[in-house]
Amino acid sequence: MARGFCLIMYFSVVVQSITPFYSSKSLEGYPAGYLSDCPGGDREAVITKNSLKYLTMTVVGNGNFLTAKRSTYTYYQMKQLAKDPNMDFSKRTAVYVGGYMDSPSYPVASLLAPQYRRQGYNVLLLDTNKFTVMEYPLAVRYIRTAARHTAEMLVDLIKHGLDPKKLDLIGLSLGAHTASFIAKRFKELTGDTISRLTGLDPAGPCFRNLGPDQRLDSSDADFVDVVDTNIDEFGMAAPIGHVNFYVNGGEYQPGDILWMPCNAFCSHLRSYTVWLAALQYPTSFIAIQCDSVQEARNKNCYDRIPLVTNVVGLGTDKSKTGVFYLATHNNYPYYLGEKGLKKEYEYFQSHMEEITNNDSMKI
C-alpha cells in the first residue's frame, strides 16, 4: 500500500513538472461581487416639485477656482440664468456633471471650470448632490429622474439661445451616465442630439450589465468620447463611445508616489486628472489604436500596422473611432507625448525592467 502511494505521488510530481501553470483570465475568471454584479435597472425614483429647487446649475465666470464669480440658479430659474452676464450663447457651452456625492463646490468641478473658460466656453456646473448623498444603488435610481429634469432645464435654455450643436456634457463616473440620461431625454423632447458627451471612467456598478438605452452609449450625442482608467472595479470595460481611451490599459494606474500604488478609487479618479491635463496640454496625450479592449489591456498595440494615433482632449479626431491605448507617466500632468508611441517608455514595463535588471542593487 505504501509503495503504491509513493508511485502515485511520484507520477503526480512528474505530471506537474511537465505541465507548468500559466496565469490567464480564462482560467482565473473576472471580478465578481457587489461592484461587478449590481444588476441596475430602468426604474426611476420620484423627485417632487418642491425638491426640484435642489437641482441647480452654477454659472462660472473668468478667473481661477478661488476668484471666479459663481452664480447658482435652480430648476425654476432658467430665464434668469440665460441673462447671466457670464453666459454668451454665441460660444460653446460646457456642462459638468459630477459623480456620486459630488458637488459644484468641491475641488473637482472648481478646478475643471477655469480650463473650459480659457477655451472660450460658457461653463455650467450641474448640482445633483441632493439626489446622490445616499446608498449608491439608490443614487443610481435618483440620477435618472434628476437627468430627465435637467434636460427640461436645457430645453428652457434653448428658448433663450442655447444651441445644442454647441453643447458639451462632461460626466465623471456616475455623472457620465447622468449625462447620458440628460442627452437621451433631451433628444426625446427636441428631436436633436447634443454635440458632444465626454465620459470620464463611466461607472460600472449597476450599469455594466445593462443595454445602451440604460447607460452611456455612442448614440447619446453626435460625438461620445470615453476615458477609461479603472474598468474592472469602479469603471466599465465595454467600448461604449465613438472613441475609447484605455489609459495604461484601463485597469489600474501607476501611483503618483512610486511606493504608494494607485488603488481602485485613485485609478478611477485618474480619468479626471488626465482630462484636466489634456485641456491644458491639448496635443500631448497621444494614444495608439488597438484592435480590441484586450489588446489595450495587454498593451499590445505598439506594433499595429498601420499605426493609427489620436489625442485625448478637445482636439480628438472624431473620424478615428474605436479602441485606443494611452500610455502615461505616473506624475501630473502625466503625458508622454511622442514617447508614448514607443513600448520602451511604457511606465509599468520600463520601471519593472529597471528594477529586475539592475545587478547592482544592495542594502
TrEMBL record:
Listed GO CC annotations: extracellular space
Signal sequence, start to end: 1-17
Molecular function terms, GO-annotated: lipase activity; serine hydrolase activity
Pfam family, one: Lipase
Key words of the record: Secreted, Signal
Record's keyword annotation contains rRNA-binding: no
Membrane-traversing stretches: none
GO biological process annotation, one example: lipid catabolic process
Keyword Secreted: yes
Domain of life: Eukaryota
Compartments, record wording: Secreted
Family statement drawn from the similarity comment of this UniProt entry: Belongs to the AB hydrolase superfamily. Lipase family.
Protein name: Lipase domain-containing protein
Organism listed in the record: Bombyx mori
Upper taxonomic lineage: Eukaryota, Metazoa, Ecdysozoa, Arthropoda, Hexapoda
